[in-house]
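DM from R.C. (forwarded with permission)

"hey, sorry to bug you on a friday — could you get me a structure for this? deadline for the figure draft is monday and I only need the backbone to look sensible"
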Amino acid sequence: MPSLEADPYLDGPLGWSHQAMQRLLRERHLADESEPGAKGQRGGRRRAVQFQRDTVSSMRSAGRRAMTGAVALDVDFTCCKRNPPGIHRLAKYLLDVLGPALEPKDLGRRSVLYGDDRQVKLLHVSLNQAWDPDPSAQSTTASTRVVARPIRDVAEDLRVADEIRSRFDQWPREADASPFYIPVDDFDDVLVPPPFSAEPLPKLAKPLSQLDRFDQHWRWYRAQEAYLAATDAYLLSYLCTCPNDIAGTRESAPDSAGTVTEHAASLSDMYRPLLLTLPFGLPLPGFALASGEWKRYGEQARTALAAFLDRWPLLRPLLVPVKVTLMITPSIRGMDLDNIALTLLPMIHDVLQPHIDPLTMHRLGMPLPSGGPEHEKHAKALRRLRSLNEHSVTAYQVIELKRTPQSPQEGTINVLLGDGTGPRSSWETAHDYLHQNLPTLLESDRYR
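My reply, with the result:
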């Protein structure tokens, strides 16, 4: 939201472009080309020490110091070994390694990327399980890639993305390629078929039966894709409209009459509760405040997830790779974002049964081809799935919001299900939207 006393340069396309380039210079990019690891694996400490050395060396060569303020973190894992650790275990280990130095004297500094992982207020993690039983067919290599940004820069990216969107003035009919696009037509056109079973296909008219079954699954897939994409678009709209709701951001600068702050607060009061009413939004119980309550909390969360599935039979089974968003307001005691995922994601995997390769034919109840290249292709896919975390989200993100006077002592947790086919964080999506559309605004301003 622009200030009522806005500077024409700073609050215009040319100023946005120059400031966006300055924010790019403050990003930290880290990369490691070895197989991602998890806590408890053999040689874990040795690997962690070496990872910290390599990371600090690359940061020093780029003139980067450890971050002292609130952080937004994007992490992409690519695993090429059989039976890789779960996505939440990989993230927990990495966030610990990026914090305090294990050997500070040898490293020459006390911390690597940040001093404490509680500085991380936005976290996005994706996992590509790239193991292939045929080594010659391996097309990708194992890696860990990290992008870290100051929260203030992420909030500004979100704010400017909202400004650019308003200048295009296309809402609610966004272009199909826009991340703000809500596929309303798909809601109307997709007729969701009744839940299917894996009963044997009839012997008569077998090809037509198979075609009909494929058509049912395709329409089911499209319906799930439309609803999950809509959830992503609503979430992005909220973050762009209310970026200062994110923990670690500064309050809106008031004008002389205080109307800017009041308007920002009214938008937050309107949009934050709206997210709780999204089709695939699920409020979970707040955090357990005592260690002895965690078992009871887990039972309550599991019950809530099961009831959620009962309300939405469209999600049985999931035919679209899923990205899970955990939107949290911390308890009065606070909590690390990686620990939240470590607690909740195993329950989500167990109850929702998301599938990393949902269109594999055996999941659709189709018979395996009796011979030929197609038979070998399907057999290979099945062998691969048996050696991976088959039921796993492809990405998740955790968004910590500021506490408000209305926030309960135990805090709040809300789960949103989004489309995991192109796993990017909501703030990375806004960042890309800004950089893709600024040239168009600059060109249009030039000819005014």
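R.C.: lifesaver. Residues 13-27+152-446 form a domain with the 60s Ribosomal Protein L30; Chain: A; fold (CATH 3.30.1330.70).
me: no worries. The beta strands are 28-32, 71-79, 120-129, 143-150, 281-284, 322-329, 395-400, 412-419.
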